[in-house]
Amino acid sequence: MRLNDHDKARIRAAIGDAEARTQMHLAVSVVPASDRYLLYPVAWGAVAALIAAGIVAIGWPRVPLREAFALEALVFVALSLLLEWRPLRLALVPRRILRHRAEALAHREFASRILATGEGKGGVLIFVSLAERYVQILADRTAHARAGAAAWETILSDTIAAARRRSPADAVVRAIESCATVLTATAPRERS
User: Is 23 left (phi over 0), alpha (psi -120 to 50) or beta?
Assistant: First the structure.
């Protein structure tokens, strides 16, 4: 599932409102997948081809080598192409690797969208990877200190729950609003 133009406009409007209320930078990154996982179809295709060749060698030892090789190549190519379909490809990847790749991309996005801006006003990144079903909220030191770990954990768990019940766009808009509320409530008061 991807975000449509209406969803993107809603998210941009929520970000603009949140940044105006908090005087902090807020970024959202919603990606279809955190990695392409290209190695997995090829690796599983190769394993299946070797197993097919072993079955042929054990079951039918008189099969000519040329025909056995053709069967092995056919199994490899067919299975590798079949496993290129994203749902099957993702099913082959161990869950911890899916999580690790999504987490690594979230931290790279945080570094490029929040830390590298050089504005010095602090910021928060809401990261969603749709294929991995992964959500993370990362705050810089200033934002983290203002709200505290418990507040970010609450927002994250509420966002995950909202994403299960509603569309990803609704969950992201709700997360943006929650971040703005927490950061506004914990903002240092200016002296007059």
Answer: left
Write down the pTM of the prediction: 0.85
- Predicted local distance difference test score (pLDDT) of residue 6: 94
- Domain hosting 45: range is 39-92
How far apart are the C-alpha atoms of 38 and 48, rounded to whole Å? Answer: 17
Tell whether 156 and 65 lie within a shared domain: no
- Measured between its terminal Cα atoms, the distance across the chain in Å is 49
Residue 80, number of CB atoms within 10 A of its CB? 18
- Residue 41 CB partners (closer than 8 Å, separation 6+): 79, 80, 81, 82, 83, 84, 88, 89, 92
Residue numbers of the chain with a pLDDT score lower than 70: 1, 118-120, 188-192
Residue 192 falls within a domain, yes or no? Answer: no
The residues with which 28 forms a beta bridge, in sequence order, are 126
**107 & 177 share domain:** yes
- Return the pLDDT at 179: 94
Q: Return the exposure string of 164-185: e unless at least 16 CB atoms fall within 10 Å of the residue's CB, then b.
A: eeeebbebbbbbbebbbbbbee
pLDDT given for residue 115 in this prediction:
87
Query: Is 151 found in the same domain as 61?
Result: no
Q: Six-digit token pair at 18?
A: 């949140």
